[in-house]
Design brief:
- This protein folds into 2 domains: 2-44 and 218-421, no CATH class; 50-200, abc type-2 transporter like fold (3-Layer(aba) Sandwich), CATH 3.40.1710.
- The protein is 65% helix and 5% strand.
- It has helices at residues 2-18, 20-45, 64-76, 90-99, 112-130, 156-187, 193-200, 222-236, 239-252, 254-259, 265-294, 309-333, 337-355, 366-371, 376-388, 398-421; strands spanning 53-59, 79-84, 104-108, 147-150.
- Strands 2-1-3-4 form a 4-stranded mixed β-sheet, sandwiched between helices.
- α3 links the parallel β1 and β2.
- α1 (2-18) packs across α11 (265-294), α2 runs antiparallel to α8 and α15 packs antiparallel against α16 (398-421).
- The chain starts with a helix and ends with a helix.
- The model has no long low-confidence stretch (mean pLDDT 79).
Length: 425
């Protein structure tokens, strides 16, 4: 039996090495994907901290509040402030944004300072009256809204972040004016600048701490997110090579000829699983190695392997076995090489999408969130994230490993039934 298995493994390795297209899809494509996607996502992560968002500000106001608002926006740190002439209208503002390559534009109305001052005096008067003191209270209109122009390529999440940042800057300007009016009404002198800064900047500090199973740890980077995800994607793309190999053997009559020999096709199935499981492990080793050693040389964050390497090996082996089982199942039921390649490629993209490789599972709603449970990629990526991002151990990923193993066994059983139904074993 061992001699037959060894001979079959050698045969499958030779068949695999002749499949140049399959090898390219299993290795070159995922390597390109992981480099490109990680680079793009890393640039997105650094957009606020390093690559500031260009914002063009048209200040039609001649008072101090307009200048204070510009300073407040600049102080936020996420914008590169560009100034436009005060004569811009909607059409000219759009042209100016294109000329200066600005993603955002803000127009401060002409009476901004006057209305902010009047509103602040009104609020201060109401506050003094609530204290039992004499205060002026005048009826004033609302401050005219700021017009924020944006390039349509900006995603909604980024636009909401921009709106929140500008709103914070606007609130700071209005709070400063209200504080000055209140202080002047009480003391009949200007608020000292030092006291003003102490009162306005006396905010509680915020510390961002990533959740971890082993206490405080370094914040994860884009590499930690992308390398495991595209490793799983690469593993499941063995369906192109393995599924096609099974179809070719069916079409060529190899299954029928094997039934005339003193052997069992189950030996051939075991051989294919051993060979392609080795391929998936090699894929993982190549992509992880790139993350560790190559990424720092091209300006990307390095991949930090989890502390529990045994858990990493277990998860990788189970993920690879599940990918091989899925490929075998597709190959057994596909009638032609085109069916195997077409269905295999499309189904992998769909499973990766609902499984959380392309869109995070927590962002899904309704039926798509429930459908994630049937995707083996969902359980695989959750296990990897627990190890890479949360510093988990083997015991922490058992709840992900068990469903992944069950899906693998179900695929193996369906493959066996398909072979029996077609009288191939």
């Amino acid at each position: 039996m061992m001699f037959k298995l060894k001979a079959t493994i050698i045969k499958d390795i030779r068949v695999l090495l002749r499949d140049k297209v399959g090898i390219a899809l299993m290795f070159i494509m995922p390597i390109i994907l992981v480099v490109v996607v990680t680079s793009i996502q890393n640039s997105t992560f650094q957009l606020i901290s390093k690559n500031k968002l260009p914002i063009l500000i048209c200040n039609k106001d001649t008072g101090q509040a307009g200048m204070q608002l510009i300073k407040a926006i600049d102080k936020i740190g996420m914008f590169k402030v560009l100034k436009a002439g005060a004569d811009q209208d909607e059409k000219l503002m759009a042209d100016a944004m294109h000329q200066k390559d600005a993603m955002l534009g803000v127009v401060i109305p002409a009476d901004f300072s006057a209305k902010v001052a009047a509103k602040s005096k009104n609020i201060a008067g109401k506050a003094l009256k609530s204290f039992g003191l004499q205060g002026d209270s005048v009826k004033v209109g609302e401050v005219d809204p700021l017009n924020i122009y944006y390039n349509p390529v900006l995603q909604e999440s980024m636009r909401l972040s921009v709106e929140g940042a500008v709103r914070s800057a606007l609130q700071l300007v209005e709070s400063r004016e209200t504080l000055r009016s209140l202080y002047f009404s009480i003391n009949e002198k200007q608020l000292p600048e030092k006291l003003e800064n102490e009162m306005l900047n006396n905010n509680a500090a915020i510390n961002e701490i990533p959740v971890s199973k082993e206490g405080v740890r370094t914040a994860p980077n884009s590499t930690q997110h992308n390398v495991p995800a595209w490793t799983i994607f690469a593993m499941f793309f063995v369906v192109i090579s393995l599924g096609g190999s099974v179809v070719r053997e069916k079409v060529s009559g190899s299954f029928i000829r094997l039934k005339t020999l003193p052997t069992n096709y189950m030996v051939g199935l075991v051989s294919k699983q051993v060979v392609y499981l080795g391929v998936t492990l090699l894929q993982a080793a190549v992509i992880f190695s790139m993350g560790i050693w190559l990424f720092p040389f091209i300006g990307l964050p390095a991949l930090n392997l989890p502390s529990d390497l045994l858990a990493l090996v277990v998860v990788t082996v189970l993920c690879g076995w599940c990918a091989v089982s899925y490929a075998l199942c597709v190959g057994v039921f596909a009638q032609t090489h085109e069916q195997s390649n077409g269905f295999g490629a499309v189904s992998i993209v769909i499973l990766s999408t609902i499984g959380g490789l392309m869109v995070p599972s927590f962002a899904m709603q309704g039926m798509f969130k429930s459908a994630a449970d049937i995707s083996p990629m969902h359980w695989a990526i959750q296990a990897y994230y627990s190890l890479f991002l949360e510093g988990g151990k083997l015991g922490d990923v058992v709840n992900n490993i068990i469903p992944l193993l069950l899906i693998t066994l179900v695929l193996q059983f369906i493959t066996f039934l398909g072979l029996r139904r077609k009288n191939l074993i």
